[in-house]
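Inputs:
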Amino acid sequence: MSFQKKTRSKILQIPGTKPSILNNTLLISSGVPSLDSLIGGGLPVGSVLLIEEDEFASYSQLLLKYFIAEGVICGHHVHISSADKTPEQILQELPDPIVNDPGTSKKPTGSDDMTIAWRYRNLPEVQSVPSGSTIGHYYDISRTMDSSFITAGKTSFCDISQCDASSKSPFMNPHYSKLLESIHTCIKDHSFGVTTTQTERNILRIGLHSLGSPQWNEEGWLNEPNDPSLFRFLYCLRSLLRNSFAACLLTIPTHLYEDSGFVGRIRNLCDSVIQLKAFEGSDKEKNPAFKEYRGLVNCVKLPHLNSLMPLVPDTMDLAFKLRRKKFTIEKLHLPPELSETASRSQEDPVLTRKSKLDF
Amino acid sequence: MLKEIIRGQEKAPIVMIEDNLDSSGVPLLRSFIRNMSQNVKLHLVTYEYNPQSLLCDFDSSAVQLHSVGDPLQWDGPAALHLGTDLHQYFESLPHSNEEFSVVIDCISRPIHHKSTSHMCRQIGMISRLPKLSQIVFMIHSDLHEMSTTCLLEHTASTGISILPLIDQTYTGLCSVLHKRQSGKITRLKEHYMLNASFDVIESEEFKPISQMLNIVSDAQPNPAANLTFNLSLSDKEKQDRSQLVLPYVHNKLKSNEGQVQISGAGAKIFYQPDEADDFDEEDPDEDLDI
């Protein structure tokens, strides 16, 4: 009887990916490391991440750009589609990657040594991003990515903004069927399918901007409340992704839909759902309790591929911050009480709130 | 803000004017037509108003009229009617290579005729025409549901909603929601003043009276202003205070010093606590060397 050393099966080595320690899925970064840690280390390949847009879509669009930029940096194939603007425009507006991450550089300590609250000195620092993750980069949103990063062979577009309905599909709205067709051909042409034997694997990233916005509607198709095209599209998209080395991030302006059941069906068809609620243009923008944050993050659904339960984070009270070089999702804290008036009144506006990041 | 938008100093590619029966948006629309026709070629599409009444006595040489009458096409096929695909209509117009802008007097009728999302897509497609500089349209918000105005507001880059006038010294009051290309959102209420030729001469932010009162009472009294004794510290005093080592501060430096001193003396205390000892392992204040 001979013992044989158990050899590990050959793990796929694709740049920009890592295997999940939880459920044996392959993960890619969403471009925002703190978002990765929220959804269990990264976006599982083969899944759909839905970002529900904030009212003015500025932050959801930023997340989409991070996702695409991460793909460009890792050398993944990127497929972009939009009806509100041309996909080329989105590709041109990608943020610039930062070579030495601000997350890894140590903060200088000493100047704010706790002299009065000295008991807190020994407490571990709150980390928004767990160290040790090997995927994900930080980006500088004040500069756009150098076009030399973008290789022409690894990008493809599906422009809905100017197309006219040429194919009359009885199954779904022609815009959606056109997009689905383009994704299908992209998977087939570049052999991203799991069944194809390929020596060198790559990942396909699909970024869909503002899906289901009024720009996607087509005349002559069913009226909006009963239009099943979006659901049919999402079904088909998910089944396509499950059988290929591809992941999709899509943003949907769900605040435009009146029917909550409509939104519920959309959420049901995506693997993970993150809702953004920006303070911009609302009363909360001037509320001192929220002055450190740009908006709230509502974790509607977390991915649970290959497992019964998703990885549940410590808290669901999350908010996002935006700095020039960093978009972070953090636990929602109240700010320290520094004002002279003891009570924190809701109406009290913060008058001197001017940072570099105000557009 | 409104003045800059009308004068074209603030870029607003898609402007929506929302009015209702009580407060009309026509004067503001005239102001837009006047300012836009001075800069570029203007296409005025009228569904509802008489184009001459909108143009007043402006120099109309730069304005091309597209009137929608004859909805049932009794007078033969018309180029422009209620069901016309506006995007295709403007695309097929013979354009020279100069920029142009589009004003639609009221899109309430085509919305009722077609659908909201169809109109949104039409406006979006027109705004993406390569030579278009600006598109302005008006809508009667009291004729539609909230969702309609929401969808249009989402499509538009700037929404101007006319409000009932409070201060009679001004021509009108409106709330402006302006989305800049960079993503900056401005939402404010503004009074505006138009002159006889519908040029905007002034627009300033509207402040409700309660807010104005707040500003007056905002100055808080300083209780430490008139005291017979000294309550504040000078810089020198503050510096001295910061250098004082407080007894409870258990810093590394101090504990190291203490150990050195003991070992330097060459004496060590070995103490074995026995059962009779009431040895407290906990150090609630963390100020003891256990």
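The helical segments of chain A are 33-38, 58-74, 87-92, 174-189, 229-242, 260-268. Flag for discussion at group meeting.
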